[in-house]
């Protein structure tokens, strides 16, 4: 994507929910599976540690501005005015669009009870929603060939992977070339738990104030291990901005300022 923005070690696409859905409709007219993953400050550190994950993430067809940290970083580093597009909200938007357009969906991942409850909830939420099939995320490696065959036989055009990162990205990289009908594949992490009601999402006011991360931390203190990278990310973004300002200063020599 020509207008993709580099944010430290990762990337994000300058889209909102509406323009993102336009991309999805374009993907559905394509001839191959297209990947959709979420960009957030945590990914800035985790993606870099894994060369395979790094490559899958780099060539993704759509990278959502999932975290407020990414949105603010894009504004500071590129002057881009992005709006946050949480993966859970984008999945719901895709499901509504799929129901309206008669596009079939397959859901893979999470526990069996969660997978079934979320699938049933989506059918209830969106009249016309066509569930082509589903499978829980606890299949063994030797069962993957059968799963791919099941997805292909279902003729699903949209595939949601609720496997968590980096498993969902790596699954897509491994099996994408064997998917015969899938044209859109979104990695949705723990979204099915939210849809099934086993995990409560932050109240709307927290989301509107862009402090959903704080609500989740208060609800699940064990997340501190993952979210401790947030201040490090913020510091690195600020330092990157300062470095860019020096390189652009009149009379400066960019070559001598390169690290």
What does this structure look like?
- It is a single chain.
- The protein is an alpha/beta fold and 259 residues long.
- It has one domain (5-196): Rossmann fold (3-Layer(aba) Sandwich).
- It is built from 14 helices and 8 strands.
- The strands form 2 sheets. The protein has a 6-stranded parallel beta sheet with strand order 4-3-8-7-5-6, with helices on both faces. It has a two-stranded antiparallel sheet with strand order 1-2.
- Strand 5, helix 6 (112-125) and strand 6 form a beta-alpha-beta unit.
- Helix 3 (51-58) crosses helix 8.
Question: What's the gist of this structure?
Answer:
By secondary structure, the protein is of the alpha/beta class. It has a single domain (5-196), classed as 3-Layer(aba) Sandwich (Rossmann fold), CATH 3.40.50.
